[in-house]
Amino acid sequence: MPSKADVKAWKAQLVAQAEQQILKLTDSDRFKQYLNTLAKFHHYSARNIDLIYAQNPQATQVAGFKQWQTAFNRTVNRGAKAIRIAAPIIKKLTPAEQKRLDTTDERAIVGYRYLPVFDVSQTSGEPVLSSKDFVKENLADHQNVTSLYNAFKDYLNQQTDLKVSEVPLATLNGAKGYFQPSTNEIVIGGDEPDNALKLKTLYHEYAHSQLHGLKSAFKDRPRAYQETQAEAVAYVAMQNIGVDTSNYSLGYVATWAKDKAVIHSALSEIQQVSNKVIELSDGLTKQLGLQETQKEPKHDLKKLSAQDLNQSYQGLQQQVQQARNPQQKSELKNKLNDIHHEISERTQKQLKSFAEQHPEIKQPDSELDQSLKH
Question: What is the pTM of this model?
């Protein structure tokens, strides 16, 4: 069994490795190019974001007709229907207008006009980097993640004041799930086909509930901090159970945080919550028997054929090499030793039986044995 110090070190190592991997991604030329691309797009107001969504819910990157040509070397497709956004009309104020409006500002918004913009999907030309280039779905599936997802969801519903429910992905506007602080509710896309991604999303939203709930210490952190923290916890939790979500998580964190200082500051605050998630997961996997390897119990080893015994031994060797959780690695080694002992016993019995059946085959006597050594 690993010591408490080993387990503590393992948990801290997971967070440290997560930060290193995210920072490594932000150093890449491709990611820097992505940030340069972001800088070319306007940051729209909440009002305009609502307007864009109302007209085209699938829109992701919008710009004006000429901006697509000059900044991105793309052209708007013939017949594309423009999305209208509100642009302020700013006027220089006369002294009389300043007095009437009770302001000392020289300029003020006196109205709005609606300008046409187009989504990237309505244009053609050179590729435009987006967050999707760094956030890849279709995570490698992993045996038993569905069982762990259901167990974790049931635990949160039954043992905590959180409520976890599922809705169709189509109702989430492109998201995989969300946490609602006002109702302390987690909502997950129930029809997500990727089981590993579904479990990771539950970890992500649970992290939000612990870090950014109404009574949480970090509830007032900026959105970039919050998303960085929640996804980093999810990444660490999935790493702990042996599922690598780096293709999704690292890019998600990097595209939210963008800045190394944000990444470091945000991740420095997640250790306690990531420890809690790891402990919960370890407890649930033990209850479900998911940490057991695919071998017969000890008392059934004698029923296995030699071929099955050898296959179990080889399989366990690979699992020991791949295991990174110290608790899981220790248990696998114990099971490997059990099989090794059984193979050794069988070999000794077979040798003894062979010697009894062939008494004419004798061991060399000591005199002959000594002569062979010269």
Answer: 0.53
Is the model more confident about 293 or about 272? Answer: 272
pLDDT of 73-109, one tens digit each?
999 999 999 999 988 888 898 988 888 888 888 888 8
DSSP H helices, 4-94, are 4-26, 29-40, 46-55, 65-72
Asked if 188 and 164 touch (Cβ cutoff 8 Å), the reply is yes
Q: How far is residue 202's CA from residue 90's CA, in Å, rounded to a whole number?
A: 46
State CA 225 to chain mean position distance. Answer: 16
Kindly report the three-state secondary structure assignment for every residue of 70-114.
Answer: HHHCEEECCCCCCEEEEEEEEEECCHHHHHHHCCCCCEEEEEEEE
Q: Which stretches of 114-259 are DSSP H helices?
A: 145-159, 195-212, 223-240, 246-257
Q: Are residues 58 and 121 in contact, defined by beta-carbon separation less than 8 angstroms?
A: yes
pLDDT exceeds cutoff 60 at 295: no
Which DSSP helix (H) or strand (E) runs through 177?
Answer: strand 177-180
Report the alpha-carbon distance of residue 116 to residue 99 in Å, rounded. 35
Each residue's pLDDT tens digit, 174-188: 889 999 999 999 999
Torsion angle of alpha carbons 151, 153, 155, 160, nearest 10°?
A: 170
